[in-house]
Amino acid sequence: MKAITLFLLSGLLLAGCYQKSKPVSESAVSGPRLIAVPQQLVPAVERTGGLKAWANTQVISGECTYTVYKDDGTKYVTTQRHGVYPWSDTIQVYANEPQGSYAWSLFKDNFRIMESPAIRSRELEPTVGNQYIIESIWSVLAPPARIAALSSEDTKPCEPVLIDGLWYREIQLPGDRSYFLNAEGIISMCLVPGEKDKFYLARGYEYRPVATTLITMPQKIEIFQSDRQAKPLKRIVEIDYFKQKTFPF
Questions:
Q1: 5, 18, 62, 242: least CB-packed within 10 angstroms?
Q2: Where residue 130 falls among pLDDT bands split at 50, 70, 90?
Q3: Phi/psi class of residue 100: alpha, beta or left (left: φ > 0; alpha: ψ in -120 to 50)?
């Protein structure tokens, strides 16, 4: 399968990182690390700003209203700050609560919790310390980074699936993960496996370009507990960003 080559930008370009004699596609941008985006997924990346804009994005910063839907039918509303590093597989979440402050960090599969002892309250359940919800946020905010890691062998034809009354095309990823293209061709939904056969479905809405790198981001995210077929079973979290900004390399 053909691939579009994508080089990530960096502040420093070490000598010897690439050789001029190697062929480079017209849509590539210069940088130290080679990424291959499967040809059939390039239009989805273009829908959210394009390869060059994403390659130039080092950090996605957002401030949001974070609503937790609890099992007893009530909800808890707070604010959070999110820092997403698309090409480092990292997301950091910060917040201040009446009981104290906390920070959640996910780097690849390494999840860390830094918080005041009193912060483990019932108000934030079931999201406190849940690395799969944090991964879901990262995945729906920065899908180009994840699909850029796919090889041609990893990519299967995007099959149509009906979810919650709407048609999507599923992109199956390694490890029981999936992305879903909506009718506009945007990767607006992801499925993340959790513990004990649980799955989490994150869905993005209201996509707009974000300064300064002008990638297109969802302004709203909903996260559901779901089954393996991505059927939403129970809404857990709703995120509404009131401030977003990106920082280039």
A1: 242
A2: confident
A3: left
